[in-house]
Amino acid sequence: MDTSPLIPFRLSALIIALLAILPSAFAEYKTEYTVASDGSGDFFRIQDAIDDCKSFPDLPITIRIKEGRYREKVTVPAWNTKLSLVGEGEVVIAYNSNFKAVDRGRNSTFFTATLEVLANDFTARNITVANTSGPVGQAIALRVEGDRCAFYECKLLGNQDTVYLAGEGNRQYFEKCHIEGTVDYIFGEATAFFEDCVLLCKSGSYITAASTPQSSAYGFVFNRCTVERAEGVGEVYLGRPWRKFARTVFIDCDYGDGINSEGWKNWGWEKPEQTVFYAEYIAKGSKKVAKQRVEWSHQLSKSDLSDYSKESVLAGWEF
């Protein structure tokens, strides 16, 4: 008997069967986790949930963290890409570590972070990250060494060196975050855009210390941010260059009356006007401010602003 008419039917059935199992092939790993300190989730600890995630996943993975205070150091390794940490309620990740306690030589600072993100395509939402060492020197709360890392409505709490943004060419984004510290509390070589954030100065020192590589067109850009001071704190500086090609720009930010009239310090670099780029766009009173600022800083015009949009600064990253 001629069975040739059945062949197309059998092929079609095989294709349908293969298509049916393809989604499960991509979902052979968990894409949703819950962490809860009361035991109601998949894990008690955030790090344990991260360690259970598939490396280099095809699909994004979300870890939802129930309200609570998690006393642990958390690391997102380079292979845990496409990971989101989402706080549900008031979530605090707290850890006590500082330069002296680490005691690993001149680079001890970089080992002190409460949360260190080494992976690309990381997102954090509604999480507080705190280094609880107090005013004892360098003590990082957040260290980011991944590309395309975003933080929404997070609180980053520390003193000296609160937030370290690392990696030449890496792009990082902060929206509606609260960041506080004392000395150089936002520092590093990455390209970062801060939007609608609050910067709380806990001492009369420096907000930023960029170490922008010479090859990077942008360093740190602050858009519509608010600078606040803790009670009793005197005037502060917008920044000083950790390395001589530092680039930092403040656009339409609310300083109150807390910024020193000079605006910036040069950290001892000779002829900073030849290498450092520090600039501001102030809608009101810009001429008065320009006269008071150090002569090697810049005042932007409205026509310059398109060059400092989120899309320009973080070019190539689709949110």
Search tags:
5 helices; 7-stranded parallel β-sheet; Pectin_lyase_fold/virulence; single chain; Pectate Lyase C-like; 319 residues; 32% strand; alpha/beta; 13% helix; Pectinesterase; 16-stranded parallel β-sheet
Write the layout of secondary structure elements.
Elements (H helix, E strand, L loop, with lengths): L5 H21 L5 E4 L10 H7 L8 E11 L2 E3 L6 E13 L3 H4 L12 E3 L5 E3 L2 E4 L10 E3 L4 E4 L2 E3 L5 E3 L5 E5 L2 E4 L4 E3 L2 E5 L2 E4 L4 E5 L9 E4 L2 E4 L7 E3 L7 E5 L25 E5 L4 H7 L5 E2 L10 H4 L6
Parallel strand pairs: 1-2, 2-4, 3-5, 4-6, 4-7, 5-8, 6-9, 7-10, 8-11, 9-12, 10-13, 11-14, 12-15, 13-16, 14-17, 15-18, 16-19, 17-20, 18-21, 21-22, 22-23
What's a quick, concise take on this entry?
The chain is built from five helices and 23 strands.
Mean pLDDT: 92
What is the SS-derived class? alpha/beta
Distance between the termini: 60 Å
Give the overall form. Answer: globular
Model regions low in confidence, pLDDT < 50 over at least 5 residues = 21-25
Q: Would you list the SSEs in sequence order as H and E?
A: HEHEEEHEEEEEEEEEEEEEEEEEEHEH
Tell me, what is the CATH class of the domain at 96-313? Mainly Beta
CATH homologous superfamily caption of the domain at 96-313: Single-stranded right-handed beta-helix, Pectin lyase-like
**Strand residues, percent:** 25-35%
Enter the CATH topology name of the domain at 96-313. Pectate Lyase C-like
CA radius of gyration: 23 Å
Largest sheet: 16 strands, parallel
In DSSP terms (H or I, runs of 4 or more residues), the helix count works out at 5
Helix content: 10-25%
- State the total count of DSSP E strands: 23
CATH architecture of the domain at 96-313: 3 Solenoid
Catalytic activity: [(1->4)-alpha-D-galacturonosyl methyl ester](n) + n H2O = [(1->4)-alpha-D-galacturonosyl](n) + n methanol + n H(+)
InterPro entries: Pectin_lyas_fold (IPR012334), Pectin_lyase_fold/virulence (IPR011050), Pectinesterase_Asp_AS (IPR033131), Pectinesterase_cat (IPR000070), Pectinesterase_Tyr_AS (IPR018040)
Pathway: Glycan metabolism; pectin degradation; 2-dehydro-3-deoxy-D-gluconate from pectin: step 1/5
GO cellular component, one term: cell outer membrane
